[in-house]
Amino acid sequence: MTAATIPGLDQTPTTHQSLLAWVRQVAELTTPAEVVWCDGSDEEWRTITGKLVTAGTFVRLRQKPNSFWCASDPSDVARVEDRTFICSTYEADAGPTNNWMDPIDMKVIMTEHYRGSMAGRTMYVIPFCMGPLTAEKPMLGVEITDSEYVVASMHIMTRMGSKALALFGDDAEFVRCLHSVGAPLKPGQKDVPWPCDQTKYISQFPEERMVWSYGSGYGGNALLGKKCYSLRIASVIGREEGWLAEHMLILKLTSPEQKVHYIAAAFPSACGKTNLAMLEPAIPGWKVETLGDDIAWLRFGEDGRLYAVNPENGFFGVAPGTGWKTNPNAMRTLYTGNSIFTNVALTDDGDVWWEGYSEVPPDRLTTWKREHWTLASDELTSHPNSRYCTPIAQCPITAPEWDDPNGVPISAIFFGGRRATTIPLVTESRDWQHGVFLGATLSSETTAAATGQVGVVRRDPMAMLPFIGYHAGDYFQHWIDTGKHADATKLPKIFYVNWFRRDADGRFLWPGFSENARVLKWAIERIEGTAPAVDTPIGWVPTTGALDMKGLDTPVEDIEAVLEVDLDEWRTEIPLIEEWFTTIGDKLPTPLHDELEALKHRLA
Ligand code: SAT
Ligand code: MN
């Protein structure tokens, strides 16, 4: 079939010539059966989800309105970091923490994979906008995909369709996102519920503001507005334009005196980011509202403060462990409906279930592998990385300003990881540069949610290790410069938290979850200059009495232990930080080297 005869190709709802030319070029390469421009309407949602139900990809839930269960191919369940590439012209611009390939070589390889890859399928053109549509400079993108699952998910996760396309005019800049599951259909060939290819590529071309993804249908590999655009590509744009694209939740904290503070926080996976974003504070009178659970774009406002915008329109949260006890606001959001559940279990009466959803599982379930499950089975019902995808706007504690194009002024940035030892419950950095040092050396123990050994300490700078679109050393320098160019009194204060410290018997020293509000409260009181802290070699740590512990019966020894700065543990930490900094190489900014030397000196 020649391009001119592909149905739908000439139905072009835009006068943006370079967009039209690109769509035509992709259609000629991938040879789909038809081309559809997505308008983002409710009718389109009904058509697409209906098609997915007919194909056996989706099962319509009977217990949650307008919601669907979906199981992926068992091999296609998570981001594939070893298949993720930064294709900058020079390898030195990708740095030691990314896989790099020459952009020309990558295009040659991937072009051959894309050739004919959409045969027998529909090619969808999804215009979208990351962040508010009303932004002064809306952050536009177009994803071309042959996956209905992607179209349905993009309906939830982004502002997409006609309302985004209206902002393109004749020549607006946009990020080109190309995605194919890599499973062409021969005439008459029956489709599978989750088409994908064993070969996968997730390639970013930062200089061209372009993403090419092939072979996977899953989340961060396929919803290209998410990690690929809003972190990898946006981090490069942010460096050029003087702002930060970060892997951070955004929350609004209101005190009993009605004082409002906004907090952004970065944690590696499985450290409770979504739970913190939707916290129900354990201390009376304090209120948390949410603005985002995964990504924050931080830009300076005219008043010199740093403002955060969440580029996303939905939550793509880890399902296991989400329940009425751990995150009631997430549960309320999901019960509202309009959601897609991927790789969780399905109940006989048409509902979802996962480990932690409720205390007692139903007697019988269909697992994420589509297998029959009973209480006697010892298999997990849901994949540890199974996900819910649900609109932010329907979360009962979404702050009304979540869609404000100017964002919200950030008072505090939290970095956090999962560490059994060494890292106290909370440390306040001495200043911005020391805070950058804390973020750059952020570490976490691996959990069962990812493949590999459990309990190994890994560096995950700013929780951005797989998402920095350029050289990690340049990224640290950009963070330092961001502080240098600002009025220090207006910068957010930077804190380092660890909810996961344990005693010698492996028992958690801190209750976590809604009690974490006590740490937020202390941080706010530090900003307001009212809470006590001790000056330790690693930064400011609360005095034992500084945390509001009213209503908690945590023994004072536990509070002392969770706040302890153990100099011996820290001396053991130093070689690990040195090893990490060696990995970064020559581009490690001198100020971070100086911070390490100063820390060593204070510990000596
Ligand atoms: O796989 S995703 O990037 O979509 C989700 C995540 O890892 O946060
Ligand atoms: Mn994430």
From TrEMBL:
GO molecular function, one term: phosphoenolpyruvate carboxykinase (GTP) activity
Positions of Mn(2+) binding: 227, 247, 294
Binding positions for substrate per the UniProt entry: 79, 218-220, 269, 385-387
SUPFAM superfamilies the record matches: PEP carboxykinase N-terminal domain (SSF68923), PEP carboxykinase-like (SSF53795)
Pfam families: PEPCK_GTP, PEPCK_N
Similarity section: Belongs to the phosphoenolpyruvate carboxykinase [GTP] family.
Subunit structure: Monomer.
Function, in words: Catalyzes the conversion of oxaloacetate (OAA) to phosphoenolpyruvate (PEP), the rate-limiting step in the metabolic pathway that produces glucose from lactate and other precursors derived from the citric acid cycle.
Annotated protein name in UniProt: Phosphoenolpyruvate carboxykinase [GTP]
Species of provenance: Kibdelosporangium philippinense
Phylogenetic classification of the source organism: Bacteria, Bacillati, Actinomycetota, Actinomycetes, Pseudonocardiales
